[in-house]
TrEMBL record:
Keywords: Hydrolase, Metal-binding, Zinc. Its EC number is 3.5.4.5. It is an enzyme of class 3 (hydrolase). This enzyme scavenges exogenous and endogenous cytidine and 2'-deoxycytidine for UMP synthesis. The active site is at residue 103. Residues 47-167, 186-296 form the CMP/dCMP-type deaminase domain. GO terms for cellular component: cytosol. It comes from Shewanella gelidii. SUPFAM superfamilies: Cytidine deaminase-like. The keyword Hydrolase applies. Binds 1 zinc ion. This is Cytidine deaminase. Substrate binds at residues 88-90. Its cofactor is Zn(2+).
Length: 296
């Protein structure tokens, strides 16, 4: 088991903790598949809702909160039945707009793993307005069930009545819909190719600024983030923040970052390069490799 879970595992009911420990090896980054979940639930003797709430201290352990010291954990359950953990992230000394909320971390984790719909969000504090708006961008967003400690389960429509949604701006394929933008580049650099593939899967219906970031650590592992826009603009999730959140879920340190690549489409009416450099320079002494590509 990874050292970071030593404290939080003691907060779980003992049968659940015992069944979970074998899953918390070096590669664990918050993903538990449907089969593992069924086995955990049988061993725990809990209902699924009770078990997911009980797992939140494990998710919250992945938080990086140098400013607030307030750790939030969230779990997104995908339509596949798999669950994806997420936690909040802040950048030391930087503007609060660089922060990632736990729900965004969990949802982006599910998206990067190929989920096309979120059916449940489990979180240890009531979702803030920013996250309610972020979730309203998702496929069937209004129907997502929100699970909170000590509360009845309600759909997002209960927490965000009269919500402003992608449909209000004429967007018919919301976030997590499988869509692929065709962008090409002549490169044999695996990091550039990975960033290009991820940028093709990014979600930028309001600016067409399709973009992705790939971070490489010194051991050659890569962690990526896609751009995820929002109809209300500000709850958009930057690709660098999504990649940093992924890096932290994998228990990696910023000083392990070796290279950072941002790919963006030349068709965007905005550029993410300034915001991406600000975030990168706050955490690592690495220069951003910025590549602008022409969509097909
Ligand atoms: Zn939030």
């Amino acid at each position: 088991m990874q050292d970071r879970f030593v404290k939080s595992i003691t907060q779980l009911p003992e049968p659940l903790a015992n069944a979970l420990v074998p899953l918390l090896g070096q590669d664990f980054a918050g993903h538990i598949d449907a089969q593992q979940l069924t086995e955990l639930q049988a061993a725990s003797g809990l209902s699924e809702k009770e078990m997911l709430l009980a797992l939140l201290p494990i998710a919250a352990t992945m938080a990086e909160t140098p400013i607030s010291h307030f750790n939030v954990g969230a779990i997104a359950k995908g339509k596949s039945g798999d669950i994806y953990m997420g936690a909040n992230l802040e950048l030391t000394g930087e503007a609060l707009c660089h922060s990632v909320h736990a729900e965004q971390s969990a949802i982006s984790h599910a998206w990067l793993s190929g989920e096309q719909q979120i059916v449940d969000i489990v979180v240890n504090y009531s979702p803030c307005g920013h996250c309610r708006q972020f979730m309203n961008e998702l496929v069937q967003g209004q129907s997502i069930r929100i699970h909170l400690p000590g509360q009845d389960v309600h759909p997002l429509s209960h927490y965000l009545p009269y919500g402003f949604s992608p449909a209000d701006l004429g967007v018919k394929e919301p976030l997590l819909t499988k869509q692929q933008i065709d962008i090409e580049i002549d490169s044999d650099d695996p990091m550039v190719i990975e960033a290009l593939d991820q940028a093709g899967l990014s979600y930028a219906p309001y600016t067409q600024a399709h973009a992705a970031v790939v971070l490489e650590t010194k051991d050659g592992r890569t962690y990526c983030g896609r751009y995820a826009e929002n109809a209300a603009y500000n709850p958009s999730m930057m690709p660098m923040q999504m990649a940093l959140s992924c890096l932290k879920r994998h228990n990696r340190d910023y000083d392990e970052i070796n290279r950072a690549v941002l790919i963006e489409s030349s068709k965007g009416v905005i550029s993410l390069v300034g915001a991406t450099m600000d975030a990168l320079h706050a955490i690592a002494a690495v220069e951003l490799e910025h590549i602008v590509v022409e969509p097909a």
